[in-house]
């Protein structure tokens, strides 16, 4: 009976949390719309039950292709809005924007420069992943999630790892939200889900880029951690240690950056180490270990750093100075720098761990998936537990294990792990 009641309470608590987050998002985007678009929105004419789009004649599907700068097609004396009106593959996206005169007017203004990441008609086929009874402003912000400032060509987009859109990243409206880009084998993806298709169209006030999927408004960090099957062990550890409560409590922080080890990363620790960490005896050790992967109130993408508490924004590249990120583990920092990985910019953590799956864009921060579990620095030889350190360790680090040489993916004994984490334990009593 007690277990059933506990589960019912957990479901109730998650429901309340989701309502709270959605309410916070609604308030944030309502203010953001006024700030960013600076126009009066036309009232929503739908019945509030969902987006209704007219049927369109079938058109030849667009396919991913390599596009050189010289191949970008300028549309003579046409604005972005006129370009989309003339493009038969974008009529569903045009219909999405039809009720919003402020968006249409600005896209049709030759003096205002934008870039559009436009879903083709097939992206709207089938049921849309929208909230039940979504109000009109939700669809307006769904549209704005596909638009950003500046005149970004295909080559510039391909060379970027994130670009801005017109959704606010924070409640103070100081930083714009990002769209992440991924590139491999000559193809490009946005937000890990939308494939770049067709050829870019150049209007007199910007570019239109075609994608084959909608870019939905970002989920919360807690939603991603709960749903990503690659992060089940990490999520389980966060729940067991109550760190999940901190991550989920968006009233206690503005944003967050999380380096999330995959299931494979935990398996590389070895079965015995995992059995210990996920046991009652290992809970305090697991707490210290996972705290070292969570940074509150600052957001680090692969090309820009939003400093703590909105104190500034720093563009990041391979010549930038390393950033010291304060973790939840008291007095311990992660060192993050920028390196090239497969000809693209990515993060290097503690001078040794390359982030292969970066920039999972979320409503309240960003998650970077990593294939190694990060270990705080060894204090076994009397080091002070203060300040920041480079090379603070992961399984496989040579420099950070003063008495032990290890290869990437090698297992760790329980006693070794306990010795490493012991200085960071907090007595729960």
What is the count of β-strands?
19
In round numbers, the mean pLDDT is 81
Helix content: 25-40%
Low-confidence stretches: 1-17, 19-24, 26-58, 65-71, 387-407
- Count of alpha and pi helical runs: 13
Measured by DSSP, the beta-strand proportion falls in 15-25%
Distance from N terminus to C terminus (CA atoms, Å) equals 28 Å
Structural class: alpha+beta
Reported for the largest beta sheet, the result is: 8 strands, mixed
Shape estimate:
elongated
Task: Give Rg in angstroms.
Answer: 23 Å
Describe the structure.
By secondary structure, the chain is an alpha+beta fold. Helix content is 29%, strand content 23%. Strands 1, 2, 3, 4, 5, 6, 7 and 8 form an eight-stranded mixed sheet that branches. A four-stranded mixed sheet has the order 10-9-19-18. A hairpin with a 7-residue loop joins strand 4 (162-168) and strand 5.
């Amino acid at each position: 009976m007690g277990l059933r009641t506990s589960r019912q309470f957990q479901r109730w608590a998650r429901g309340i949390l989701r309502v709270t987050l959605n309410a916070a998002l609604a308030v944030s985007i309502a203010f953001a719309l006024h700030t960013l678009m600076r126009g009066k929105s036309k009232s929503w004419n739908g019945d509030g039950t969902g987006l209704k789009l007219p049927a369109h004649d079938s058109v030849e599907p667009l396919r991913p292709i390599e596009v050189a700068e010289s191949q970008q097609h300028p549309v003579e004396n046409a604005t972005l809005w006129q370009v989309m009106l003339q493009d038969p593959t974008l009529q569903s996206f045009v219909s999405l924007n039809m009720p919003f005169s402020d968006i249409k007017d600005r896209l049709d203004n030759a003096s205002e420069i934008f870039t559009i990441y436009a879903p083709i008609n097939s992206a709207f086929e089938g049921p849309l992943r929208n909230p039940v009874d979504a109000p009109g402003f939700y669809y307006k912000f769904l549209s704005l999630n596909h638009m950003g400032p500046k005149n970004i060509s295909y080559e510039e987009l391909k060379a970027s790892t994130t670009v801005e859109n017109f959704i606010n990243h924070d409640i103070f409206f100081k930083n714009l939200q990002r769209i992440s880009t991924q590139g491999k084998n000559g193809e490009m993806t946005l937000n890990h889900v939308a494939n770049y298709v067709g050829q870019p169209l150049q209007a007199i006030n910007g570019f239109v880029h075609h994608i084959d999927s909608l870019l939905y408004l970002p989920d919360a960090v807690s939603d991603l951690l709960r749903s990503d099957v690659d992060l089940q062990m990490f999520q389980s550890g966060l729940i067991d240690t109550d760190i999940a409560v901190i991550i989920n409590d968006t009233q206690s922080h503005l944003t967050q950056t999380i380096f999330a080890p995959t299931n494979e990363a935990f398996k590389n620790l070895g079965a015995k180490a995992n059995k210990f960490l996920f046991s009652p005896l290992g809970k305090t050790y697991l707490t210290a270990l996972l705290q070292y992967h969570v940074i509150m109130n600052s957001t680090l993408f692969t090309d820009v750093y939003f400093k703590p508490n909105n104190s500034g924004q720093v563009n990041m590249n391979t010549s930038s100075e390393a950033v010291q990120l304060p973790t939840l583990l008291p007095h311990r920092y992660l060192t993050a720098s920028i390196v090239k990985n497969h000809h693209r910019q990515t993060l290097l953590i503690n001078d040794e761990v390359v982030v292969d799956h970066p920039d999972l864009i979320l409503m309240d921060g960003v998650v970077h998936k990593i294939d190694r579990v990060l270990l705080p620095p060894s204090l076994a030889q009397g080091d002070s537990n203060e300040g920041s350190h480079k090379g603070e360790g992961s399984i496989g680090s040579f420099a950070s294990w003063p008495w032990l040489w290890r290869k990437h993916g090698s297992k760790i004994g329980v006693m070794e792990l306990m010795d490493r984490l012991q200085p960071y334990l907090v007595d729960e009593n």
